[in-house]
Design a protein that fits this description.
With about 240 residues, the protein is of the alpha/beta class. Helix content is about 15%, strand content about 25%. The strands form 3 sheets. Strands 1-6-7-10-11-13-12 form a 7-stranded mixed β-sheet, with no helix packed on it. A 5-stranded mixed β-sheet has the order 5-4-3-2-14, covered by helices on one side. Strands 8-9 form a two-stranded parallel ribbon.
Length: about 240
């Protein structure tokens, strides 16, 4: 399956040498980084609330609604234009071009944006991991079957990950849909329970479950900017790690 090779690591400027990185982060430890998190902007970025200042702007997928080259370029140009020193992106289930025409889509990503597809990045000494996959629904992009297929993806997440970015949520955490059921991935929930260094898990996908929660010292964020009715009215969420 494409995109599921063993991890590659993107090293960005200002990185701390590997030997000096902590192997674990306690809930009380401050890593001195401000994350500004958005997701599910669906091409409506010019109508969303003001984006706060921060060190890293994270987009957790669904840049577009209709994933054409032109729409993707417009969204990426907007993302790159933001003043944050670093911008990090994963794709979402609407971002078909990143799955079906991966070479083309990845060539469109500007140098000021770090795109993560089952990859790690070290930013100012903080270890990030990004992945676009979510449980199968209506044959959207980056769908995998629950169980073995998704578990295989989550097994790639390094144990040392401190900030995890996925498009979809873990089961039971900010994943409730309008009928009262939970749409998140149980295998993802099990994997994050085994990540001793995890400080923040950032995602979107389930618009109606927008919000933030702290569980066992980890900050979980569903940063869907669009509501269930696709109004881009939810504000970005700020996370200090």
């Amino acid at each position: 399956m494409t995109g599921l090779d063993r991890p590659a690591i993107v090293r960005l400027r200002h990185e701390v040498p590997h030997a000096s990185l902590p192997t674990a982060a306690s809930p009380q430890q401050c890593l001195s980084m401000r994350l500004v998190v958005v997701s599910d902007t669906h091409g409506l970025h010019d109508r969303m609330p003001t984006i706060p200042d921060g060190d890293v702007l994270v987009h957790a997928g669904d840049l577009t609604t209709v994933s054409t080259v032109a729409n993707t370029v417009r969204a990426l140009e907007w993302l790159e234009s933001q003043p944050h020193r670093h911008k990090v992106l994963v794709a979402g289930n609407h971002d078909f071009i990143f799955e079906r025409r991966a070479d083309v889509a990845e060539s469109l990503v500007p140098p000021g944006v770090t795109y993560l597809r089952d990859r790690a990045a070290i930013i100012d000494g903080v270890r990030f991991w990004g992945s676009p996959w979510q449980a199968w629904y209506h044959d959207w992009a980056f769908n995998l079957l629950r169980g073995e297929e998704l578990a295989r993806v989550w097994a790639l997440i390094p144990d040392t990950t401190q900030v995890l970015i996925t498009h979809g949520p873990p089961h039971g955490i900010l994943d409730g849909v309008v009928d009262g059921t939970h749409a998140g991935c149980a295998d993802l929930r099990r994997r994050i329970a085994d990540l001793p260094s995890l400080r923040a898990h950032l995602f979107g996908h389930i618009h109606e479950a927008y919000g933030s929660a702290i569980i066992d010292g980890c900050r979980f964020v569903n940063a869907s900017i669009c509501t269930v009715g696709y109004a881009p009215s939810n504000p970005p969420i700020v996370v200090d790690v």
